[in-house]
Amino acid sequence: MTVTALLGFAGLCLLLAITPGPDTFLVLRYGLVSVSSGVASAAGSALGSLFWAAAVALGLSAFLQTSASAFFVVKVAGGLYLLYLGLIGFRQSQALVSADPDLGGVPPKTGPALRAGLFSCVLNPKVGLFFLAVVPQFLPADAVGFGTIMTLGLIDGVVAFGWLVLVTVAASKAVLWLRRPKVTRLLDRTSSAILALLGIGTLATTV
After folding, report:
1. Nearest in space to 115 (alpha carbons), one of 74, 84, 94, 87
2. How would you classify residue 179: left for phi > 0, otherwise alpha for psi between -120 and 50, otherwise beta?
3. Over the stretch 88-130, which tens digit does the pLDDT of each residue have?
4. Which of 60, 81, 162, 183 registers the highest number of CB atoms within 10 A of its CB?
């Protein structure tokens, strides 16, 4: 693959990454809790990109495109998971206060944030269809193989991770700057509400 093709693909991935979506709001919610949680969620999303790259290379994504029932199942699962994350966010909004060292709290573990980012991406069939539709446009005819596709998946994961980490840092800095528990809880609940609405919207399109 040429450097121009790789840069072009990376630029496209960046444009898609900065477009607000489930991963962005999920990372924002965890970033409001702590930087480590936000970064973990971003890492999970990046791993999800590698999963879909592998799925394209193995033909699984093409199966989703041709099988209406399989696509339906994955889409419903993704919508329910987003709705679950949104509802859990409301219940855990108090964690934004307890996670603040100045208030005597203990920062939350990063495991749940990593899993949330991973499952949010893996259960989003639109990511798989993106890889299926876009990746072949950047593949040279003489180098269509698992390794080449995974290279593009790695680029997408790295670009998405970098952008989401910036979102995490920005959210964390905003919390540190404001230092107002009511405001941070409001922001967390807002991002949780958006996640829930995205889940409801996903489920509504399956009806």
Report:
1. 84
2. left
3. 666 655 554 444 444 344 455 788 889 988 988 888 777 777 7
4. 81
Q: Which of 67, 197, 47, 187 is nearest to 127 (CA)?
A: 47
pTM for this entry: 0.69
User: What's the CA gap between 185 and 120, in Å, rounded?
Assistant: 22
Distance, in Å, from the CA atom of 87 to the CA atom of 116, rounded to the nearest integer, reads 13
State how far the Cα of 34 lies from the Cα of 111, in Å rounded to an integer. Answer: 13
Structure tokens at 26: 């999920």
Residue 101's CB: how many other CB atoms inside 10 A?
Answer: 9
Q: Are 178 and 41 in contact (CB under 8 A)?
A: no
CA distance 153 to 159: 10
| Contact of 30 with 41, CB cutoff 8 Å | yes
Using CA atoms, how far apart are residues 59 and 61, in angstroms rounded to an integer?
6
* Spatial separation of the C-alpha atoms in residues 5 and 76, rounded to whole Å: 35
DSSP secondary-structure letter at 106? -
